């Protein structure tokens, strides 16, 4: 008869990690955020789009322009989504693989968009200013924003924010290895750091820590922790604090009720409501409340979002002018046709640029020595 050693006592099973499946509702939310931004660029602001319409968008959309003006907050929704997705994709992944994944995801469509917009704006029939060849080349690096170079894509400033977030997350989470405690410390540390930087009024720290955008990225990271464990009190605390600070920055930057020259007057309540929508929508996905939205077309919508976002603004001006002024299509019809045209262009970019080039670039970066 053998005696079983005491150390052989069975241990309780560890809590299983959530199985990562495609969150198709998140893909749909990406497209919603991109369409919000498009509505802002086409009918919620002044500037170059006025030339495309032939008059102010306020005249083209007498009622809707007030609502379209809130579409710029789609960027904040994007940042919350990005925090969630980057934490999910970086969990358990080595640094080189994380870098290869991010670079291959961003660069092919971005390069194609820069080349396409530069070429279109250089056409004699297009009455928009093209950047110099030197500036266009710098734009290929994605570093034109900090270098003070003229931008080919008006929306690329958001990519500069994304790059800084990726760098911080890679340095403090992916490199040492992602786990719950480390991610929590990253969120808490970043929050304290950007608050201190804001109080210290140090431009260098502001560039690195991004006080105006950090709460949205951090909130998204916290929501991924909620996705892993909906009862995680620390994760919920991160989400709530991020929302409270994030809405403050959004209101501070976008509230313009006292500006007599504002294109449209956003209200404090409206801004807070849209920010809350972004957090609540991602929270609903994190908690599994939208798992029923599992249609395959949402995956296609998610795939089109990034190329659509890149090209919709500047090439949208060209399409609006062609539809509205050249073909004399009414403003609402021209608006919808422009969105449809940009989605078609996004599909072409996804089909002929991203699908062939993204896996090749990812494999090349993953296999090569750093």
Overview of the molecule:
By secondary structure, this protein is mainly alpha-helical. Helices cover 71% and strands 0% of the residues. It has 16 helices and no strands. Helix 10 packs antiparallel against helix 12. The chain is globular and about 60 Å long.
Beta-strand content bin:
under 5%
Q: Order of SSEs, N→C?
A: HHHHHHHHHHHHHHHH
Q: Describe the global form.
A: globular
Q: Main sheet, how many strands, which sense, barrel?
A: none
Supply the number of helical segments: 16
The structure class reads: mainly alpha
Number of strands: 0
Report the oligomer. single chain
Helix content: over 70%
Distance between the termini: 58 Å
Structural Rg = 22 Å
Poorly predicted regions: 1-19
Mean pLDDT: 91
